[in-house]
UniProtKB/TrEMBL annotation, chain A:
Protein name per Swiss-Prot or TrEMBL: Beta-methylgalactoside transporter inner membrane component
Keyword terms of this UniProt record: Cell membrane, Membrane, Transmembrane, Transmembrane helix
Subcellular location: Cell membrane
GO cellular component, one term: plasma membrane
Topology of this chain in the membrane: Multi-pass membrane protein
UniProt key word Transmembrane: yes
InterPro entries per UniProt: ABC_transp_permease
Transmembrane parts of this sequence: 20-41, 61-79, 91-109, 115-136, 145-163, 196-213, 234-257, 277-310, 322-341
UniProtKB/TrEMBL annotation, chain B:
E.C. number: 3.6.3.17
Name recorded for this polypeptide: Xylose import ATP-binding protein XylG
Keyword Protease: no
GO MF annotations in UniProt: ATP binding; ATP hydrolysis activity
Sorted UniProt keywords: ATP-binding, Hydrolase, Nucleotide-binding, Repeat, Sugar transport, Transport
SMART domains xref list: AAA
Organism: Roseovarius albus
Length: 349, 513
């Protein structure tokens, strides 16, 4: 057996394998739920209900999707240029750190001024965090997978040090937790009374901006060219290394914006459990979205939906919450396979 | 037919389809013991597919492969090897870090050979290389060998395994004319011992020199089979492409001013590939300078310097009379250098980009295609459409990914991309490699048109016939050194071959000292 590329896949070819992958994920998850002692036929319904079934559930899902859109965009942008940024987690924390450094009293300005300033500096910090791996790669050929991945651990320990030391909230009763943001530095809710903050809108706007950059700007064209064929891009006169550095800056900035949005929009202070791995889940989101920035929004909603829905389902059906993680893993594996099947057909020899 | 002749190979009714494309359509081919059949055909005619089926790398949709009367199980390479089929690929399949002996014995017998086994193997290799005049030391590391020597190792490898049918895929592409003669002498010895050979080539005079019979494959079908003795080059060319090939007519021209000059340019070696060694060259308006040489002798280095990818470590580049300091691909394009790269798949185009995106690849930043960092897709698309029309690029449209185009159409797009900028200097690196004759004529025609309007052209090619037919002046490059320029018709292929082998340079030194 071997794979033969399909040059112009039909619409059905593009649609059927992902749909099958999704169905198979649900079937497998249902079987696992059955092993855990629940009614397998109720699983899907409970997940959907838990994720989208009520106003509260829906808002919870949107809130959960917000940081995933940012980290998903960060990864999608970088991967498109074949710059393997595994460090969105650290960059997200960099944005969060700037937010509490500036937003807990260092600057006392009205909201309309302080929020954009903090956001910009957060973006700058996240971008610079990725500058070092990018320069190491372009100058010395150091593998960015290694540097960005290891930087996550270094940076999280650095945050931990700060939270145990200088940033520790004196009113925090001994918890490693920063002081709370001043009210002016909080992102307001989009609609009064609904628990959804402007961070979500910012995420959607970011996705649109990235999409426009990728499809319409010379930078986006350069990033795609470098990702698809570095050699041809360099031959044609595209400054490959400069493009990689610019890509890294954009990617790091997007992830940092996620950190800003989480702290200023949702949490109000910085703790070490700010992100349950949003940076890594962003990789899943970006892959599911086929690195398409608008797809990232949909994929982030899907992933957030599974998390929130499976959480609620596990409580309702009395099965472990780990089922959410397993479902996500299965959906990713099957989706990768499905994506391959949209582009290749299996030929039996 | 003489009944005493043993049939070595018989391919019967081989059909192979890839999707809608029929790569081989009921192909019948037989080969007698001790016979040389040349398999001739344009690129994409189905030669490689046929050989892959014979080798068990593909399974035919229908048809059978028989070797010495035994039917080979389909899709089994091991069975083909065991039946005595051997192949020398165009790109060698040797391990650089192993010795000649290790490469030859690799896959035959155990890896943990005893020293007795080794010395037996060494004796056998020595005997074979003496018998067939394939001089190569069994203990040399393959990485240190020249291209010609590596090919000898490939042939020794086949002979060591007692192959009875040898397939040679474009074996002379990397050889000097002299090395080609040596290869043919070796083959004749082996053929006299009963070896059967399938010789795949584009080069008609080689086919005439070595084969007993010529089989022509076109669009997957056998369109002709003739005894070599009963045919000539013209008839073969006609069979191969359906119409007769017309060699380019190059009218006389007087050179204009020098548009680009290299003055004692030196570049560092890159891995095994030699850099330039104090190369001086000037390209004049209305002239084609041909650069002949055996593959890997500095052609890439000179192309990189002219194309803006490499700055000389020493020496100067002069364009239209002024010195160049900043030197990048973008600068080269800006200075009016049209660059047709050696590898159109890897360097010339981005496979997953569509034709529009590929058309603006070198000039997306120039006014007309973008403004303040934003692309103008409308004008870009119009540019691609104009190229498609003017250069007859056969494709479904400008939004098609370029990877689905044939090599010839891909090259036409590259030609359009660079020629539409009305370049002063054209760097054509292997512009017709792998193209069918129709596309070859087209590319050559375009280059000659550019020459007529006053462009200076540097034509780099490993095909000596092409260089001799097209060039006003020929330089030979060997080991990074450039020969003096030879005027059109002043040198025979043999004389150029001596320079290609590096001998002219030695004589020159001898004269100097």
């Amino acid at each position: 057996m071997r794979l033969e590329p399909i040059n112009n896949p039909s619409f059905g070819r593009k649609l059927v394998p992902p749909a099958l992958a999704l169905s198979a994920t649900i079937v497998i998850a249902s079987l696992l739920a059955m092993i855990a002692g629940a009614n397998p036929f109720s699983v899907l319904g409970l997940i959907i209900k838990g994720a989208f079934g009520s106003k509260f559930a829906l808002l919870e899902t949107l809130n959960r999707a917000t940081p995933l859109i940012f980290t998903g965009l960060a990864v999608a942008v970088a991967f498109r240029a074949k710059f393997w940024n595994i460090g969105a987690e650290a960059q997200l924390y960099a944005g969060a750190l700037i937010t509490v450094l500036l937003g807990t009293g260092a600057l006392v300005w009205p909201s309309g001024l302080i929020l954009p300033v903090i956001a910009l500096i957060a973006v700058f910090a996240g971008a610079n965090l990725l500058l070092v791996p990018a320069l190491l790669k372009t100058r010395f050929g150091v593998d960015e997978v290694v540097t960005t991945l290891l930087f996550n651990f270094i940076f999280l320990l650095f945050i931990s040090m700060l939270l145990e030391g200088p940033l520790k909230d004196p009113m925090g009763m001994g918890w490693p937790k920063s002081a709370r943001l001043i009210p002016e530095a909080r992102l307001p809710r989009i609609v009064n009374g609904l628990r959804l903050h402007w961070g979500f809108a910012l995420a959607i706007i970011s996705a649109l901006c990235v999409w426009v950059i990728q499809t319409r700007s010379t930078l986006g064209y350069e990033m795609r060219a470098v990702g698809l064929n570095k050699q041809a891009a360099g031959f044609a006169g595209i400054p490959v290394n400069l493009v990689l550095v610019k890509t890294a800056l954009l990617s790091g900035g997007l992830a940092a914006l996620g950190g800003f949005s989480e702290v200023a929009g949702l949490k109000g202070s910085l703790t070490l459990d700010l992100s349950p791995g949003f940076g890594y889940t962003g990789i899943i989101v970006a892959m599911l979205a086929l690195l398409n920035p608008l797809g990232v929004v949909i994929a982030a909603l899907f992933v957030a939906g599974i998390f929130v829905g499976a959480d609620s389902m596990s409580r309702a059906a009395d099965v472990p919450t780990y089922l959410a993680d397993i479902m996500l893993a299965i959906s990713l594996l099957l989706m990768v396979l499905a994506i391959m099947l949209t582009r290749f057909r299996v030929v039996r020899d | 037919m003489d009944t005493s002749v043993v049939e070595a190979l018989n391919l019967e009714d081989i059909t192979k389809r890839f999707g809608t494309l029929t790569a081989n359509d009921a192909v019948n081919l037989s080969l007698s013991e001790g016979e040389v059949v040349a398999l001739l055909g344009e690129n994409g005619a189905g030669k490689t597919t046929l050989m892959n089926i014979l080798f068990g790398q593909y399974t035919a949709d229908s048809g059978t492969v028989r070797v010495f009367g035994k039917t080979l199980p389909p899709g089994n390479s091991r069975a083909a090897l065991d039946a005595g089929v051997g192949m020398v690929h165009q790109h060698f399949t040797l391990a650089d870090n192993l010795t000649v002996l290790e490469n030859i014995t690799l896959g035959v017998g155990s890896l943990l050979s005893t020293s007795a086994g080794r010395s037996a193997a060494r004796d056998r290799i020595k005997a074979l290389s003496q018998k067939y005049h394939l001089s190569v030391s069994p203990d040399a590391r393959v990485g240190a060998l020249t291209v010609g020597e590596r090919q000898r190792v490939e042939i020794l490898k086949a002979l060591y395994r007692d192959v009875r049918i040898l397939i040679l895929d474009e074996p002379t592409a990397v050889l000097t004319p002299q090395e080609t003669d040596d290869l043919f002498a070796t083959l004749r010895l082996a053929i006299a011992d009963g070896l059967s050979v399938i010789f795949i080539s584009h080069k008609l005079h080689e086919v005439m020199a070595i084969s007993d019979r010529v089989v022509v494959l076109r669009h997957g079908k056998i369109t002709g089979g003739v005894r070599t003795a009963d045919t000539d080059k013209h008839a073969l060319a006609t069979l191969m492409m359906g119409t007769e090939a017309t060699p380019p007519k190059v009218p006389q021209s007087t050179p204009g001013p020098a548009l680009l000059k290299l003055d004692r340019v030196t570049t560092p070696d890159v891995g095994n590939a030699p850099g330039l060694k104090s190369v001086s060259l000037s390209l004049h308006a209305g002239h084609i300078i041909g650069l002949a040489g055996v593959s890997g002798n500095g052609q890439a280095a000179i192309a990189d310097v002219v194309g803006g990818l490499v700055k000389p470590a020493e020496g100067r580049i002069e364009i239209a009379g002024s010195d160049i300091n900043r030197w990048t691909p973008r600068e080269a394009v800006k200075r009016g250098i049209a660059r047709i790269p050696e590898d159109r798949h890897k360097t010339g185009t981005i496979a997953d980009f569509d034709l529009t995106e590929n058309a603006i690849l070198e000039r997306y930043r120039s006014r007309g295609f973008s403004k303040a960092g934003w692309l103008n897709w409308r004008s870009s698309r119009a540019f691609a459409e104009a190229i498609i029309k003017k250069y007859d690029v056969r494709c479904p449209g400008p939004d098609t990914p370029i990877r689905i185009l044939s090599g010839g159409n891909m090259q036409k797009l590259i030609l359009g991309r660079v020629l539409e900028a009305a370049p002063q200097v054209i760097l054509a690196n292997q512009p017709v490699r792998g193209l069918d004759i129709g596309a070859v004529n087209y590319v050559h025609g375009q280059l000659l048109e550019a020459r007529a309007r006053g462009a200076a052209i540097l034509l780099i090619s490993e095909d000596l016939d092409e260089v001799m037919a097209m060039s006003d002046v020929i330089h030979v490059i060997a080991d990074g050194k450039l020969s003096p320029g030879f005027g059109r018709g002043s040198m025979t292929p043999t004389e150029l071959g001596l320079w290609m082998a590096g001998q002219g340079f030695e004589n020159e030194n001898a004269h100097a000292s």
